[in-house]
Amino acid sequence: MDLSEAITVRRPQRWDKPMDASMNDADVAWLRSREPFASMNPKSFPRTTPLEGILRNDCRLIRCEPGEVLVREGDYGNSAFLVIAGSVSVMVDSLSPEQLGRTPKQKLSWPEAMRRFLFRSPVAEAREPSQVVPLRTNSSGTIRTLDDRQAIFLQDFDLVLREHEHVSLGPGELFGEVAAMYRSPRTATVIAENEATLLEIRWQGLRMFRRDKAFADTLDEHYREQWLPVHLREIPLLRYLPEANLQRVAGATGLHSYGRMEWDNDYKRQRKLPLAEQIESEPVVAEEGRLPTDLIIVRSGFGRLSQHYGASHRTTAYLGKGHLFGFEELAYNSLRSENAPPKTLQHSLRAVGFLDTLSIPAEVFAEAVLPHVRRSELPAEIAKLVTRRDQVATAAENVERRTQARLPQSKRDGQSDLPIVTGTGFQQTELLEFVVQNRLNNGQQAMVIDLNRCTRCDDCVKACASVNDGNPRFARQGLIHDRLQFVQACMHCEDPVCMIGCPTGSIARDVDSGVVVIHEPICIGCGTCANACPYQNIQMASIRDRSGKPYCDSASGKPITKATKCDLCSTQPNGPACASACPHDALVRIDLTESAPLSQWLDRRS
C-alpha cells in the first residue's frame, strides 16, 4: 500500500471528550485536597492516566437542590456519586412510579381499545396536551433546568421523607458504585436532602481509582459486607444454605469481569468477523479439558459455551444471568470414589461482549454448598453418587422433605429448576451461532418471523400502526437466517444499554412485566437512548396535536420530539398487536436470552 498520499490524522485519545469540559485546574486542586483523593498516592496511577487526569476527565461536579432525584431505583447507571458537601437521602422504602414522574400504563378495557381504534387520529404521532410537559422551568412541573442540565424533582419532598424510611449520607460517602461497576439496576432511589455538592464519577474513572489500594479495599469491603450476601442468596442453588455457610461462601467468592462493559461500541465491528475469528477474540473464562477449580455463576452479561471441533470451536449453548458453569463436573469430582478419575470441563466458556461472574472455589463448593442442594436439582449421574454417599445425602434429603410438600407437582419427582446448562441447547448449531454472533441473545422479547409461513401481507405492521398513533414501531426488515427473520423491533433487552444515561429516567423497565417503556411526559427528546441502542430500535419522532399542529418548546421555539419504540402493546388487552394480527401464525415474540425457547418453538413447527 502506498502511504505517500495517505491522509494524516491524529489518533483519537481516551480523554478527547471529558465528562465535564468546564472542569478546570482549580476544581482538580480542590478535589485533591479532600478525601479520599488527598490520601491517594499519585504513583499508583500510570503516567498516561494520572490521578489529576482522571479527576479532570472522568468526573464532574454537580450542584443539587433539595428534592432533586439523583438516581432512581431500577435505573441502569454507569456512574457513582461521592458526596462532597451537604447530604442526600437513600430511600429504604420504594417510591411509587407516580412520585418519580412515571405514570404506569394501565391496560385498556376492550370497549375503550375498540373506541380508540375506531376514532383514532389521522395524524401520525398525535398527542393530547396532557402527554406533553414543557421543558422550561416551572414551579409545578417535575422537570426543571438546573445549571444547563435537566433535573427531576420529587413533589412534596418533606412529606415523603416523613412517611418513608430513609438513610442519610454525608460528605465523604459514596453511592451508586455497585450499579456502575457491575452494570446492574440501581437498588434504591437517592434524593438530595438540601443544597448539596456531588462528584459524579463515570465507571471508567471508578475503575482507575481502584488502582489506589486503600480505595479499592474500601469498595470491596463495602460490597462484600452489604451486597454480596444479598446477591448470593438470590441464586437458587444457594437458597437453602445455613447462614454460616453463606458467610463462608461470601468470604471465599471471587469477583471477575471479562470483556468490555461498553460492548455496544464493539458490536458492529465484531459481528462482521468470521465466526472462528470472533470466537477466538472472545476472552476465555474456563477452557475445555481442564480440571474445574471454581463454580462459575453468571451475574450479568453473556457467555458462550463451545467445544473443540476440528481446528476451531463449535458453539453449543450460551449462558445468561443466573446460569451456572462447572456444576456437574465439580459435583462429580466431589462425590466420586477414590479410584475414579476426575472429570474435566466438557466445554469452554468465553465472554460474549461483557461477562461478570462470581466464582466459588471448588473446596468451598464441596463442603459448604453441595450438601444443601436438593436431590431433585442434581443431574441423574450425580444423584446416584449422592445416594452412595450418606454424609452428603442426609442433608440434601432433609431439605427435600421439608420443601417437597410446598412445591407444585411440576417441580417434584426430580424436575430441576436450577439454571444449569450442560451444552445441549440448540440442535441447530448454525442458528445458535448466528444468534450469539449478532447479540440477539440479549433480547427478552425478540420479534421472529417464520418466512416459510409469512405471505408479506404486512398485517403485522398495519396492526402496530393502528395502536401507535399511526406510526408503526417497526418495519418488517431485519437479519435473516435460513427461514427465520429477526425483525428490527425493540427486544426489551436483558442488558438494556439504552437506559444508561437517560437524564430524566423516562426510559425504564416495568417492574412487573420487564417491558422497557418510555414515559413520554418526562422524555425531553435528547436522543440519548436512540444513540445508545446497538440495534437501532429506537426512533425520535416529532409530535403533534390531533389537528396536526406540531408542539414546540416555548423557550427555544424548536419542535418537541419524543423517543418512540415498541412497548409490547403494554396497554392493549390482547397483547402485542403484531402477533395477534398475523393470519398465518408466522410471527412470535420470544425470549432469546436462553437457547431453549426458540429451539422448542422450531421443534413444534417442524
Automatic annotation (TrEMBL):
InterPro entries: 4Fe4S_Fe-S-bd, 4Fe4S_Fe_S_CS, cNMP-bd_dom, cNMP-bd_dom_sf, RmlC-like_jellyroll, RnfB_subfamily. Pfam families: cNMP_binding, Fer4_11. Residues 396-419 are annotated as: Disordered. Residues 445-473, 514-543 form the 4Fe-4S ferredoxin-type domain. SUPFAM superfamilies: 4Fe-4S ferredoxins (SSF54862), cAMP-binding domain-like (SSF51206). Residues 65-207, 237-337 form the Cyclic nucleotide-binding domain. Keywords: 4Fe-4S, Iron, Iron-sulfur, Metal-binding, Repeat. The keyword Repeat applies. The keyword Signal does not apply. It comes from the Bacteria. This is Ferredoxin-like protein YdhX.
